[in-house]
Write a structure and sequence with these properties.
335 residues, alpha+beta, 2 domains, 4-stranded antiparallel sheet, two-stranded antiparallel ribbon, 6 strands, disordered N terminus, disordered C terminus
């Protein structure tokens, strides 16, 4: 019996506000993950059912589409008054399996960053496969439809046009939200992103740095503070948190940004800042060792050139102009 006679023949009943495929011509499914589903569909379905399924999807014959862990359900309106019920089932992974998957994804910083940015990296399918937990259904899909065509075929796994229409619309839904693929496998978007952001729960990422706790201050009722309200109180030094030496080299900033080509009394600025950074990192106010103190007057001039002279002061300028030193001093003092 042909599928046309098995369903009762005739045109499908139009559906008001039915789900319509955006792609009215050409291939349905634009992203790599949605095309994986259309590939599965097209391997299992004969061309005639595929064409009728695309027509159903483009006309809006699918009433609604619900994706839940392990199950996609959709009523599809055919030529009979009652819509047919379509179901697509896959194995939804449990908490232990998802902990393994999150750890595998988190161990790859690039994939983790892309997921946190809302992207679905193509390599994610390989990460799932390495854990023995495939992302996409393998082989024949576990699917069913209540239409006579499916019943007449004994449910042999070849999608009818109603199943084909649902699979095409599912591919477009995955285009819009790639996290629906993961929700079908049992992990909603927000819990997944929270686990990846935390860097814990087996995500393999580094834990977030601990946030310093606020200082504990004993509160005193205002009435009891009236006598000492205008007093200075405890020294601010008691409120300081201990400064811990950083793991990075003290002069990391100079290495990263470079040292300005500036000299202070013939001494390069970098030679002055490095010892200061080291003392600051060590939390010490002691004077630097002698080998860290640049020599007075600056380092030896390169290539035997004499050191640069400071700009002449007023007295020096006066002497250059032929004025005696006493006259220059008197001029400076206003006398």
């Amino acid at each position: 019996m042909s599928s046309w006679w098995a369903e009762g023949g005739g045109k499908p009943i139009p559906v008001e506000d039915g789900l319509r495929a955006r792609t009215q011509r050409g291939r349905i499914g634009q992203r790599w993950w949605s095309r994986r589903f259309t590939d599965i569909l097209e391997r299992q379905c004969d061309p005639g059912r595929l064409a009728r399924g695309r027509s159903y999807a483009r006309k809006g014959q699918v009433v609604s589409l619900d994706v839940s862990p392990g199950l996609v359900g959709a009523p599809v309106q055919g030529s009979r008054p009652e819509p047919y019920q379509v179901s697509l089932r896959i194995d939804a992974y449990g908490p232990a399996e998802w902990a393994t998957l999150i750890e595998a994804v988190g161990a790859r910083a690039v994939y983790r960053a892309k997921l946190l940015a809302g992207e679905m990296p193509p390599e994610l399918e390989e990460v799932f496969a390495e854990t023995g937990l495939p992302l996409f259904p393998e082989g024949t899909l576990d699917m069913a439809c209540t239409c006579p065509d499916w019943a007449a075929g004994g449910g042999r796994g070849r999608p009818c046009k109603h199943l084909s229409a649902v699979l095409y619309l599912l591919a477009e839904a995955f285009d819009d939200d790639p996290f629906l693929v993961l929700a079908w496998r049992g992990m909603e978007k927000e819990p997944l992103l929270e686990a990846l952001r935390a860097g814990g729960a087996g995500s393999g990422g580094a834990a977030a740095p601990a946030v310093p706790r606020p200082l504990e201050v004993t509160d005193v009722p205002f009435a009891e503070r009236m006598t000492s309200f205008y007093e200075a109180g405890a020294s601010l030094s008691r409120l300081r948190e201990p400064v811990h030496a950083p793991d990075a080299p003290p002069d990391l900033l100079l290495r990263a940004l470079g040292v300005p080509n500036v000299k202070v009394r013939h001494i390069p600025l970098g030679d002055l800042l490095r010892p200061a950074y080291r003392r600051l990192a060590a939390g010490s106010d002691e004077a630097p060792p002698e080998d860290e103190v640049p020599p007075e007057g600056g380092p030896p001039a390169e290539d035997g050139a004499p050191p640069e002279d400071d700009p002449p002061g007023e007295n020096e300028a006066a002497e250059e102009n032929g004025l005696p030193e006493e006259t220059a001093e008197a001029a400076e003092s206003g006398g």
